[in-house]
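Here is the promised in-class demo. Please do not try to memorize the tokens; focus on the logic of going from shape to residues.
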């Protein structure tokens, strides 16, 4: 995070939260952010994490990803278009590289004009598959 980026003051907590979100293999929830920070021996209060997430979203450094389970997860805004995989066993969400939907024409046969899309694949991740 750069100093004074859109008026944002650089703090250790902001750096840590943004670092956890940026290094995760997919979008993470606030509860997952707490766990990941604790694994690195950083204890930041959940209220501070919520405030930091809102600040980072307001400054467009992260974006909210909502899947069918309605849990709000967060990912950086500076990553290219991609899709997600949601494991129904461990509940983790993974980024998938690239796009699995290639439209030759942004106008659908019904006449709707496509400006963007989101696809979430669901199933069992490779780690849970190995455990089975």
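The designed amino acids, position by position:
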């Amino acid at each position: 995070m750069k100093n004074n980026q859109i008026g944002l003051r650089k703090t250790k907590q902001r750096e840590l939260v943004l670092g956890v979100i940026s290094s995760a293999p997919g979008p993470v929830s606030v509860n997952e952010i707490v766990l990941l920070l604790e694994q690195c021996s950083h204890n930041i209060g959940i209220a501070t994490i919520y405030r930091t997430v809102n600040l980072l979203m307001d400054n467009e450094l992260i974006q909210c990803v909502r899947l069918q389970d309605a849990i709000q997860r967060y990912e950086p805004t500076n990553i290219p278009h991609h899709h997600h995989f949601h494991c129904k066993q461990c509940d983790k969400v993974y980024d998938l590289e690239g796009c699995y939907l290639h439209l030759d024409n942004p106008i659908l046969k019904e006449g709707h004009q496509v400006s963007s899309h989101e696809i979430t694949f669901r199933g069992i991740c490779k780690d849970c598959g190995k455990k089975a």
